[in-house]
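Lecture 7, part 2: worked example. A protein chain together with iron/sulfur cluster.
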Amino acid sequence: MLTKSDYKIYLESPIHLWALKHGKYNHIEDEYEKHLKEQGYEVEKLAQQYALKYISPKCNFQKIYQTDDLYSRADIEYKDDIYEVKSSTKIKQEDKDDISFQYYVAKNIGSIDRIFIIYLNKEYIKGENLDLKELFVVKDFTEIAKDNLEKTEINVSHALNVINKANIDELSSCYKPSTCPCKELCHPNLPEYSIYDIPRISKKNINELLRLRITDIKNIPSNFELPERQKLQVECTKKEKIIIDKERIEKDLDGIEYPIYFLDYETYSWAIPQYKGHKVYEDVVFQFSIHVKKTPNSNLVHYEFLSKKKLDPMEEVIEDLKSVIKEEGSIIVWNKSLEKGCNESMARVYPKHEQFFLNLNRRIYDIGDIFKYQMYVDPKFKGSWSIKNVLPVISPDLSYFKLDIHKGDEAMTNWYKMTHDDMDMKQREEIYKNLLKYCELDTFAMYRIWEYLNEIII
Ligand code: SF4
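Predicted complex, written out as structure tokens:
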């Protein structure tokens, strides 16, 4: 039997489907994936209310469509029209494949007229109350499903063959082994630092290297054609040499002015906006950490805020931020798109603070760019410029992996638990402390890396 979720796993990679059907698929849902699923259920519940009000009070939910080999359930059905609910603000190829499979199964049993997707309106801003008509977008995908019928039929028959295969021969692995649910099937002996650790390496180059039986990055010939940045990563790995462009780093750091604020936000985003003025998937800032270096010789001072309330945390965050960050000085962040985006959101939701946030964004400096644009390359970064990879190489005494919370999505789900779940004070305090430690390390790490870069350019 091939279900709709099997079909989506098949499209990810036929090997995944084979592994799933032969008990070799090891994917354990982490807290963040569970959180996204929970949000999906919330969206589906509201979409059902929308359907009863704006489609028909006689809508059917979770209607089953089944043939000898195929099984699928429609989120909403009314008079042979099917409505699939997506908790996203834009429709991806996998969503089109999803409804094409749904349409194909329903057509096989002769009960389909049109197929729609109900998804979230990215422009929607919550007023006093939730407006379902404005929150959702309903779009007709019947023509796309019809155009995909032939392709879907071919995929379905191949997927059914894959299920019945005795082994994975002729099934090829993907080009981006990352969170592999069945790595031992595809790459039983992948080297610790492989050709797949080269960011954005092309399929053509992967195929050529595999044809040359090269999977270890160190074995890539020096005359192998690669884009400049990939070539630099490979060369410094082969030579086990750190490459530092002191001139570019000095020029890049030159614009930084005291007092220097090392700033980091932690955010939570709801698919369904919870507070007035918020958008769908608004990045709601619930915590900040700031390390301040007032003058070249002053001590480093740390400030932090973490909301413990279920209410909109942004108002409290703003009050505290304004008490710490003054008119002058540079604001150092890592990967500025988040902090700048949050400042724009807070300026929109709380217009009386607009000038403060516009001023902040004008003073933001992204120290991550020094590693992103390869002014400093260390083989130990393994091609990544994430602060989680850079910090333990530059400051081995500091590491996120010593913390109970060591990445952004864990901070997000822990904050939600701390403010929304029933738990005793001790547990709540434990999470509170762990969240403070995590965010504090983000800003202290930036300070330590900035300090180190200044030492090496002298
Ligand atoms: S390499 Fe990893 S992600 Fe790719 S198909 Fe194999 S198991 Fe899946």
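Residues 425-456 form the longest helix (32 residues). The chain has a mean pLDDT of 94. Keep this in mind for problem set question 3.
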